[in-house]
Specification:
The relative contact order is 0.13. By secondary structure, the protein is an alpha/beta fold. The chain is built from 15 helices and twelve strands. It is flat, with a radius of gyration of 23 Å. The strands form three sheets. Strands 2-4-1-5-6-7 form a six-stranded mixed sheet, with helices on both faces. The chain has a three-stranded mixed sheet with strand order 3-9-8. Strands 11-10-12 form a three-stranded antiparallel sheet.
Length: about 375
């Protein structure tokens, strides 16, 4: 999973990136400090792996991972190449989802590129630049389609959808609000910037974060926008995350507990992005390795097996499945099998989050 962290200059996105990846990316109080997209690979926290490891004592424990890209800030006119716009737009295309960091705090020591703190305006600035880029892209697609349509009904249908979509974008609304059951496949194939899943990371002050974000008017404005635009929203405090970034796990848990928090922003952000993208994890467990594998919810057993190796999908016979909690209860896969808790599932089985699976195959 690739997540692009974006936002106007000085909203806290590089601070957040530093905190959650502990990558030490330069963070300065001026625009365009981040010139290239910095990438950090983060392990997905999963308590299930730790618990299963107590049974198997494996040589290796492998978490699922998320790639975070800290993408250069942009300003109005990015779609026309202003600031670092061209690089911004090119880099964001490679991501599965967008984490849009929105400034929801006041601090006279941190300048705002527009001279004022206004989450609604900040969101509109980036959204419109993405829309302008999509309009330019769809215009080129329309011109190419007109040249080759020649009575082809499928192409005619696609062309009509392209034209409707262009008109829709020109009203200032993103492509994800245009998509429906009839046009979904055609719109998805375009891979437009404004069709990507998006989560607004509302960067609030430490005071607001700890005392109750429901009292923050700036946060509530982001929440309202998210509701109207089919986006998710998550309150974060990047400065607070920086404080715990270098702590050991035990210290971090104690610190969070003292603040009456159960999860860090990283944990909550990953969970929110998994939900946004419709992702789940299945597990494999044995003495060599205990591991989590990320798949789309609704994936069938053979396609889940392909995440491990294509040969397993090709030679798939069956999947021996048990829910992780039941495996812990039994103490071992063999004991669970003896008690009849291990199910034998075929090619049409839809893998569930938390399934521990042993794939049987022959190639």
């Amino acid at each position: 999973m690739k997540l692009g962290i974006v936002g106007l200059p000085n909203v806290g996105k590089s601070t957040l990136f530093n905190a959650i990846t502990n990558a030490g990316v330069q963070s300065q109080n001026f625009p365009f400090c981040t010139i290239e997209p910095n990438m950090g690979v983060v392990s997905v926290p999963d308590e299930r792996l730790k618990l299963l490891s107590k049974i198997y004592n494996p040589k290796k424990v492998t978490h699922a991972s998320v790639k975070f890209f800290d993408i250069a800030g942009l300003v109005k006119g990015a779609s026309k190449g202003e600031g670092l716009g061209n690089k911004f737009l090119a880099n964001i295309r490679e991501c599965n989802a967008i984490v849009h960091v929105v400034r929801c705090f006041h601090d006279d020591n941190i300048i705002h590129v527009d001279g004022r703190v206004d989450p609604k305006s900040d969101i509109e600035t980036i959204e419109m630049e993405l829309i302008f880029s999509d309009i330019e892209f769809i215009e080129r697609r329309i011109q190419r389609c007109k040249k080759v349509v020649k009575g082809d009904k499928n192409l005619e249908n696609a062309l009509n959808i392209y034209i409707e979509l262009k008109d829709f974008l020109e009203t200032g609304r993103p492509a994800r609000l245009f998509r429906n059951e009839e046009n979904s496949d055609i719109v998805k194939e375009l891979a437009l910037l404004t069709d990507k899943p998006i989560i607004y990371a509302a960067n609030v002050s430490e005071k607001d974060f700890l005392n109750g974000i429901e009292n923050s008017e700036l946060y509530k404005s982001v929440e309202a926008i998210a509701k109207d635009s089919k986006a998710a929203v998550l309150p974060i405090c990047a400065e607070l995350e920086m404080q715990i970034a270098d702590m050991k796990d035990e210290e971090k848990l104690l610190f969070l507990s003292e603040l009456c928090l159960t999860k860090s922003s990283l944990d909550r952000l990953i969970c929110a992005c998994y939900e946004l993208l419709g992702l789940i994890s299945f597990l494999t467990a044995g003495e060599p390795e205990v591991r989590a594998w990320t798949i789309k919810d609704g994936t069938k057993a053979p396609q889940a097996a392909a995440k491990i190796h294509s040969d397993i999908e090709r030679g798939f016979i069956r999947a021996e499945v048990i829910y992780w909690e039941k495996l812990l209860e039994c103490g071992s896969f063999a004991a669970a099998k003896e008690k009849g808790f291990v199910r034998s599932e075929g090619k049409d089985y839809l893998v569930k989050d938390g399934d521990v699976i042993l794939f049987r195959f022959n190639v």
